[in-house]
Amino acid sequence: MSENVLKLENITMQFGGVVAINDLSLEVNKGEIVSLIGPNGAGKTTVFNVITGVYEATNGAVYYEDKMILSNHPQGKMKKMYAGTDAGKFSDVMTKTPDRITSLGIARTFQNIRLFKSMTVFENVLTAKHMLRKSNLFGAALKLNHREEANAREETMQLLERLGLDDVKDELATSLPYGKQRYLEIARALATKPKLLLLDEPAAGMNPQETMALTAFIKSIRDEFDLTVFIIEHHMNLVMDISDRIYVIDFGKLISHGSPEEVQNDEAVIKAYLGVSEEDE
Amino acid sequence: MKKSRTDMIFNLSLVALIFAAVIIVENIPGVNPMLSTVLKKGSIYALVAVSMNLLNGFTGLFSLGQAGFMLLGAYTYAVITIPDSAREKVYMYVKEGSAVSRAWFDNISNALHMSEDVSKLLIMIIGMLAGGLIAAFFSWLIGLPVLKLKRDYLAIATLGFAEIIRAIFQWDKLGPVTNGSNVLRNFPTFKTAVFPLTVSALCILFIVLLINSTYGRAFKAIRDDEIAAEAMGINLAHHKRLAFVISSFFAGIGGALLAMFQNTLQATPFKSAMTYEILLIVVIGGIGSISGSIIASFLYISASEWWLRGLDSGKFLFIESPAVLRGGFRMVVFSVIIMIIVLFFRKGIMGEKEISVTRFLKLFKKKDEKNKEI
Q1: How far apart are CA B237 and CA B223, in angstroms?
Q2: Which of A92, A127, A156, A241 could cross-link with B217 by S-S, CB 3.0 to 4.6 Å?
Q3: Using the beta-carbon criterion (under 8 Å), do A116 and B215 form an inter-chain contact?
Q4: Do strands A106-108 and A196-200 pair parallel, antiparallel, or not at all (unpaired)?
Q5: Is A88 left (phi over 0), alpha (psi -120 to 50) or beta?
Q6: Does position B123 have pLDDT exceeding 80, yes or no?
Q7: Count of domains in chain B?
Q8: Other beta carbons less than 10 A from residue B18's beta carbon
Q9: Lowest mean per-residue pLDDT among A184-188, B20-24, B51-55, B270-274
């Protein structure tokens, strides 16, 4: 049953002399909800940025649905500076811009919300439909694509209704309360019809009730849209409740992984992370 | 949906009304000839300003190459359309004579027994399209390296490109084509303002449709947040290039129209000052507003060509003072006006909004409701 959707192999990301991710390998299987946790500055968002092509990994490979999509090895100046391992293991160089990654079926949200500021809620989601167009520039400008356009608008409306944003659809995206902006980011990501959804701290800034609602929501969209979900999160309640498996990184290195129970009882994790936040629970 | 339809009908009827007014005004003898100048030049500047707004206002690429692309369009138009019979005289300072001929077109036109008017109109359209395409081609070429730059760096690079183009066109080795730094003339031109108004209305209509399409949304997404746009599957390089090429295409057409308006063509006026003029119009109208750009360009041309002209010639409104009001004073006043606008009305006339009857009506409705509440 466990069909690989995403696989990272020996990923190392080095900025100058700083190793942000060190030899990270992980797998996300179809239909799973997998969490990536770790203390602040552990390199979690960097992992997302490598997967989505924002950064080019220094070494290692990324596979999507068992096909290599990204690969690199230390080159040029980095050859001498490289501080990671497995330097000789990868020979391919494969890079993709973030839009190519998204068109493969990997959509993401951002930790510090990045909505299109001048647009309404509806337009924000509709813009994400641009990727799925078949019409060319002239067809679109001369409205020869009215069927496609009408279709995109209808799907956008359905998505907004599903996420409970239809009543604010004509408001400016930035005028929404913080929690709704997070939902809007998820709606926008879903509009690209992804198979794998990367959520970067979706519960940041939410209170416990909102976090619980979000937990249920993520589970429900996973089933409804047939998604695989990979989450970065700090709220332990959400993580423990939602995750099929958890990866824990600290200083860019994988320190533990397994089911929520396993991770919770792992000495290394408690030392690095959970021990600090015990009083929260 | 319904709202936008009312707006569209309103806007179209507004355009039709303007056209009717233009035709009537032009056929009344004794009307101030300045009005005709304003209509012609204003419509040309409106087109160029809108094309610049597409790039600077809607895609967020701060480019200052507009004058360069206008020059490309203008020269392409003139070189292609000068009748062969006039070429010898036009190119008389060039040893080799003209290297370009429009015999191919004249042959076709003769073979099809076109009347003179039809043939002239056709070559004008071909010339304009060619001007637009050449400008678009060069923008594509220059865009390959330059569009990787951001903000001020892009502005500097495009500004430099425009200046280089101008210098190249004045180079005497290119004389057989560009006539060096000598004047090009005798190419077909328009007489009434209807022609430039029609052309620029059609071009602006296309740009408006484009901005309202899915591509327009992608452009705006890039302006708002490049990283988010890319994460939503919008190919940055491709879309930036599209916006750049389309903007330059219409700048090229605007350049061709400007050549027709001036009757003669030289590279000297296509300086960066011309780009700044257009940038000013865009800023005054509101960055990101098409109707703002159009209104501002007519206002700007009216002011600079007509209303403030008296400042240069000693008599303005009721003031008569040849000592103060003399050559150059117009520019002083103009600069002050512009400074006031930039300081106090930074969003321009329209901000990012467009003219819309429905919003207008809504305003009244709100007032009514307020009155009722009281």
Answers
A1: 13
A2: A127
A3: no
A4: parallel
A5: alpha
A6: yes
A7: 1
A8: 14
A9: B20-24
CB A60 within 8 Å of CB A16: no
Rounded to whole angstroms, what are the CA distances from A217 to A211, A214, A235, B9, B243?
10, 5, 15, 44, 39
Residue A258 backbone dihedrals phi, psi, to 5 degrees: 150, -165
Cβ contact (<8 Å) for A129 and B214?
A: yes
Looking at beta carbons, which residues of chain A come within 8 Å of B223? 118
Helix A121-128 vs helix B214-224: crossing angle, to nearest 10 = 110
Determine the structural domain holding residue B189 and report its residue range: 37-267
Per-residue pLDDT band for B92 (boundaries 50, 70, 90) equals: confident
Assess A103–B contact: CB distance below 8 Å, yes or no.
yes
Question: Is A192 touching B (CB cutoff 8 A)?
Answer: yes
Task: Output helix, strand, coil percentages for chain A, rounded to the nearest 5.
Answer: 40, 25, 35
Mean pLDDT rounded to a whole number for chain A: 87
Does the beta-carbon distance from B233 to A52 stay under 8 Å?
no
A118 at interface of B, judged by CB pairs closer than 8 A: yes
What is the DSSP code string of A146-196? HHHHHHHHHHHHHHHHHTT-GGGTTSBGGGS-HHHHHHHHHHHHHTT--SE
Checking if the pLDDT of B34 tops 50, the result is: yes
Residue A190's closest CA among A114, A121, A102?
Answer: A102
Cα separation, A258 vs A244, in Å, equals 9
Could you give the CA distance from residue A58 to residue A50 in angstroms, rounded to a whole number?
10
| Assembly ipTM | 0.88
Quote the minimal CA–CA distance from B177 to chain A in Å. Answer: 33
Q: Do A98 and B209 touch (CB under 8 A)?
A: no
Burial B308-334 (b: 16+ CB within 10 A, else e): bebbbebebeeeeeeeebeeebbeeeb
Domain assignment present for B177: yes
In a domain, B340, yes or no: no
Token reading at B281: 């119009």
What count of residues does chain A have?
281
Residue showing tokens 């606008």: B341
Q: How far is A173 from chain B (nearest CA, A)?
A: 12
A272 touches chain B (CB under 8 A): no
Reported as a pLDDT band with limits 50, 70 and 90, residue B232 is: very high
- The predicted pLDDT at position A276 comes to 53
Whole-angstrom distance, CA of residue B348 vs CA of residue B286: 4
- Quick one: pLDDT band at residue B366, thresholds 50, 70, 90? low
Q: Kindly state whether residue B70 falls inside one of the protein's structural domains.
A: yes
Rounded to an integer, what distance in angstroms lies between the CA atom of residue B34 and that of residue B26?
11
Sign for the CA dihedral angle at A84, A86, A88, A91 comes to negative
Inside any domain, residue B295: no
Mean pLDDT of B269-276: 86
Using alpha carbons only, give the angle A85, A86, A88 rounded to the nearest 5 degrees.
Answer: 130
Helical ranges in A52-120 per DSSP H: 77-81, 98-104
Model pLDDT, residue B368: 65
Q: Which residue type occupies A90? A: F
Question: Looking at the domain covering A4-280, what would its CATH class be?
Answer: alpha beta
- Closest approach of A276 to chain B, Cα-based (Å): 33
